[in-house]
Amino acid sequence: MSITTGDFRAKITASTLFEKKQRHEIITCLTAYDYAGARLVDEAGIDMILVGDSLAMVMLGYENTLPVTMQEMLHHTRAVRRGVKRAFLVADMPFASYHVSQREAVRNAARFIKDAGAEAVKIEGGEKRARLVERLVGAEVPVVGHIGLTPQSVHAMGGYKVQGKTLQAVEQLMHDALALEQAGACVIVLEGIPREVAAMVTQELEVPTIGIGAGPECDGQVLVFHDLLGLTFAPPAKFVRRYAEVGAAISNALLAFKDDVKSGGYPSDAESYHLPKETLAAIQSRAMAKRSIGD
Ligand code: KIV
């Protein structure tokens, strides 16, 4: 059953997402990191595209998200911007780009909007980021919050662990979500928390929640592009559903190319350019003339 309503091509904004929550219409979100990926995601009608700092791992091969820089995030956001017409485009602020001072955070966030064409930035952390969210929103930078398992806190958390399992942790998550909403966040990502907790947070908030490893009761769902497509090299997390095995398809194509080149099967005559008939005839008659002089 399709639950899509309204004009499929209408530009998605933060208000559209808010209205979708009010209408109980599920929000779709995926990451994208380059022009081709962004076009495919946008043309599939996905509502929200996140240039996630997960690109540190899936695009750049780092072990975690911490090393990715402002420059790298801006570079990928610009490429994605060129591929997106309809979706609401959000860029992740990288680790340490919003932690030092509010002033620096606002300057960095503004670069995503002004230089790279993002429509919002995402920052990780709850209650402790509330004042920063207020400041960013006051500077006309829409903000997406991100709580629960926040990958930029990998060392502080002691690994990638499901959060919000004790009563105290559940209460803190609820405080975090409400503090972000009050501060003006337009969407809140809930990552790696029990579905029951995500359901309670989602019910409590007016702004939409987007879940990843947070169960089906969130207002929307996000996955990492490469996870969904089977383009990663490690076993996927429990919540990942692979909709394709693109990595295997690419490997097969590469092996077939290698075999064809080695066996002389590529390129064929049909895949080669040819001289015009007149030029070929002229070359042949010149060669014949040379040969007859030699005789
Ligand atoms: O960086 C990322 O891709 C993310 C999402 C998975 C929520 O933060």
Report on the architecture of this protein.
By secondary structure, the chain is an alpha/beta fold. Helix 2 links the parallel strand 1 and strand 2. It contains 12 helices and 8 strands. Helix content is 44%, strand content 13%. It has an 8-stranded parallel beta barrel with strand order 1-2-3-4-5-6-7-8, surrounded by 7 helices. The mean pLDDT is 96. It has helices spanning 14-22, 35-43, 55-58, 70-83, 102-114, 130-138, 154-157, 167-183, 195-204, 225-229, 246-263, 277-294, and strands spanning 27-31, 48-51, 88-92, 120-124, 143-148, 187-191, 209-212, 220-223. Helix 6 (130-138) runs parallel beside helix 8 (167-183). Residues 31, 50, 52-54, 92, 189, 191, 212, 222, 224 line the site of 3-methyl-2-oxobutanoic acid (KIV).
Helix content: 40-55%
User: Biggest sheet: strands, sense, closure?
Assistant: 8 strands, parallel, barrel
Any idea what the radius of gyration is?
25 Å
Uncertain stretches? none
Essential attributes:
single chain; 295 residues; alpha/beta; 13% strand; binds 3-methyl-2-oxobutanoic acid
What is this structure's SSE topology?
Blueprint: H1 14-22, E1 27-31, H2 35-43, E2 48-51, H3 55-58, H4 70-83, E3 88-92, H5 102-114, E4 120-124, H6 130-138, E5 143-148, H7 154-157, H8 167-183, E6 187-191, H9 195-204, E7 209-212, E8 220-223, H10 225-229, H11 246-263, H12 277-294
Parallel strand pairs: 1-2, 1-8, 2-3, 3-4, 4-5, 5-6, 6-7, 7-8
3-methyl-2-oxobutanoic acid (KIV) is lined by residues 31, 50, 52-54, 92, 189, 191, 212, 222, 224.
